[in-house]
Amino acid sequence: MATFFPGESHTFSEYLLVPGYSSCECVPKNVSLRAPLVKYRKGEQPALSLNIPMTSAIMQAVSGPRLAVALAQEGGISFIYGSQTPEDEAAMVREVKDYKAGVVTSDSNLRPEMTLVDVLALKERSGHSAMPVTEDGSAHGRLLGIVTSRDYRPSRDSRDKRVEEFMTPIESLVTAPATATLSEANDIIWENKLNQLPIVNDDGTLVGLVFRKDYDAHKENPLELLDADKRYLVGAGINTRDYEQRVPVLVDAGADVLCIDSSEGYSEWQAITLRWIRDRYGDSVKVGAGNVVDGDGFRFLADAGADFVKVGIGGGSICITREQKGIGRGQASALIDVCQERDKYFRETGVYIPVCSDGGIVYDYHMTLALAMGADFLMLGRYFARFDESPTARVNVNGNYMKEYWGEGSARARNWARYDLGGDKKLSFVEGVDSYVPYAGPLKENVQGSLMKVRSTMCNCGALDLAQLRDKAKITRVSATSLVEGGAHDVLLKDSTSTSSVNFG
Ligand code: RVP
């Protein structure tokens, strides 16, 4: 006879947190959101941790290199989408690893034979007054000199004057090698009273420019997530089909952590993929697995060697798996069940395997609830798709700015590798939709705003870190009528933007 889970399956919106005692020191600025990213033994430290419990979804419309850098600057990690060729995915990983914090790749570059007319036109177009001169005019060509507004007098100089005649040539420039740290570059800027400093490779090619003004901006990222070489951490999605080709190129590109991206992870395919990685790389390659929605699924992936386990089937905003296949479980119920199994596994084996709650976060308070219910960290798609840094263009839809957001299982993504149907594309059906989400501006201010709320709620629960939150949280179910009571009600709103639906748009 089939197994029947007791009770119904519930979503985050059906729960609230009941405040606990908070002492005077329990204020948001004292709250740490540090979270383990990969498994560790009791008494030891995880090899990788997050400074904020946020990861971005393994999706074409979410996790490209630009978002990965922006999220790592805030302390989280992106998983670059795997629904592209291994080489293209590896190139994106490399772009994040090669990103030098504070080093700007110039998009206003000159060739020596250009004239003052070109310089003035480029300045007008770009608004930049410092322009590197490279042999071929490209951003990473051999550096010959630099032109700034101190090098020419528009009122006196002939418009035909060639750039090579008035640029400050490389011999007279102060430059720094590619190995210089940002703080060393900054020292050079100050010692030489420069406004910008070209960073140059050994072969004389240009890496980029460090600007005096950007160093201060860089210091505004106290939680940024860096590896031992001070490069941003980045993850990458893999699948259970082409891992033998994909994993080596991703590892080679410097991916810090991998994750098997699948709509349903309680499968032999995942165990085979994990075994192949362990046989080839031992524990040196970190890899998460999923998605599962109950304790059995967790234990299966834990025994198979997963470094973290991802929870959630059918709860994603663009996901129609539950409608199409009738599989899944309310995200809150799934998470609670899996986290209980994680704790049991820890007591039995002394190995702590972090749990990631994936999908279904709509309001900021859902983040706090998921963390209180036991998630070590979260994976979000819709949330990040709305920001400037996501890979899609901003579009105007009936006077409102929107960003496009589509599921990995939609016809648009054509990511059949995520859905283990024996690899037969012809028999596949869509499990996701193509949609718009309201544009919300830069990642930084949105993430900081959301986490301010998380920190503040944690204080209401008397928790100064995520482990304390899990311990101390008092969680209650809400009835349908108390949900109405929780929003503004029985008043006429003057300003519809003053409701709590910030993320929802
Ligand atoms: P959300 O944050 O609610 O937008 O959900 C994002 C999650 O939805 C992803 O991390 C993934 O697990 C799931 N997803 C992605 N594509 C699809 C689909 O096409 N069904 N589902």
TrEMBL record:
Residues 103-165, 167-225 form the CBS domain. Its cofactor is K(+). The keyword Metal-binding applies. Its EC number is 1.1.1.205. The keyword Metal-binding applies. Pfam families: CBS, IMPDH. One of its GO terms (molecular function) is IMP dehydrogenase activity. Keywords: CBS domain, GMP biosynthesis, Metal-binding, NAD, Oxidoreductase, Potassium, Purine biosynthesis. InterPro entries: Aldolase_TIM (IPR013785), CBS_dom (IPR000644), CBS_dom_sf (IPR046342), IMP_DH (IPR005990), IMP_DH/GMP_Rdtase_CS (IPR015875), IMP_DH_GMPRt (IPR001093). It catalyses: IMP + NAD(+) + H2O = XMP + NADH + H(+). It comes from the Bacteria. Belongs to the IMPDH/GMPR family. NCBIfam families: PRK07107.1. This is IMP dehydrogenase. It comes from Kribbibacterium absianum.
